[in-house]
Amino acid sequence: MNDQAKSVDQRFDAAAPAELSSWNRQDTTWMLGLFGTAIGAGTLFLPINAGLGGFWPLVILALLAFPMTFYAHRGLTRFVLSGREGADITDVVEEHFGIKAGALITLLYFFAIFPILLIYSVGLTNTVASFLEHQLHITPPPRALLSFVLILGLLAVVRCGEQAIVKAMSLMVYPFIVALLFLAVYLIPHWNGGILTTASQVPAPSALLHTLWLAIPVMVFSFNHSPIISAFAVDQKRRYGVHAEERSSQILSRAHLLMVAMVLFFVFSCVLTLSPEQLAEAKAQNLSILSYLANHFSNPTIAFAAPLIAFVAISKSFLGHYIGASEGLKGLIVKSGKRPGAKALDRIVAAFMLVICWIVATLNPSILGMIETIGGPVIAAILFLMPMYAIRKVPAMARYRGQASNVFVTAVGLVAISALVYSLSA
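That's the HAAAP family serine/threonine permease sequence above. Prediction below.
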């Protein structure tokens, strides 16, 4: 280990407690906050996208789900932790790679996350409007008014501070977990083999690899919570000092185990209920699995619960992505040479987010899905490749070199990016 890496370790050793404290309520809150950012509206489309590939690709993806997501997010967390005290991801990039690289990554980081925030704004407005009209039989207010009230309500939570956001998300996770469990268990009596009909049809190696290649990005981004990782790492370093990496890894592993167990149970319950043809029909109709199941069973309980679950899923993911988007926008403002006070900067960012999200939610454009897809390769590069490159080049991360997980994360990142680029060009 060279002198720079040693100085980083010594700086934290001096201020750190002798040993790591026991697990506490704040750790649980962060675990649920990470879960809340990752498991959102995309989960409701995952059974369709993952199930269409057939039985064997789905089994392989299920086995890869935990290592793919855990090692990648742990790498990004380690990257942020390698910076100076209080530095977020945009500061750490500048610290390790220089001012120009810092500005470029900050720009890409913002434009990869912000469109997702816009998509959630549109989705939230559509979900509530549909719920009012079809379930409550109430004429929705004008779209401009409805979207403004909804976004303003979420930003009111944001104004209470980062810890309030994480706490609100962790509280929203509980009903979401209960709802997913309820639906998965409800479907058990309706299991008819579904995807098992393809189990005897072992695909040719080339066809299997092609299916996995295109499906890996779907799985990766169904568990993605990179927008909140920077704030998570900064808080861990502030709380635990030299023990931050150890505790953050514990929190990440528990969060990912919860994500994988919950979501895969839900996915397998859905695909064991519906045939491959029905999954294809749901995809053609551009419906979430909840909407399709409600129509399939003509069940008023599911029809009423589906939009409520979607509302919770979208709201908590909105809050988690807001942290990342606001962090990127603040970084852009500061790197442009303007340095307003912390409170003024918060107000500027909140006002910008409110106005843009409100306008887009009101206009309800259909182009947003394409924007999200374009942002996918950037998120994959930041989540998978940048931390692995830093491990090779940055002295402060030298301790992580030589681990097999680094090769695995790099390979998955390259596969995800190539599949996303292929999908765009297809």
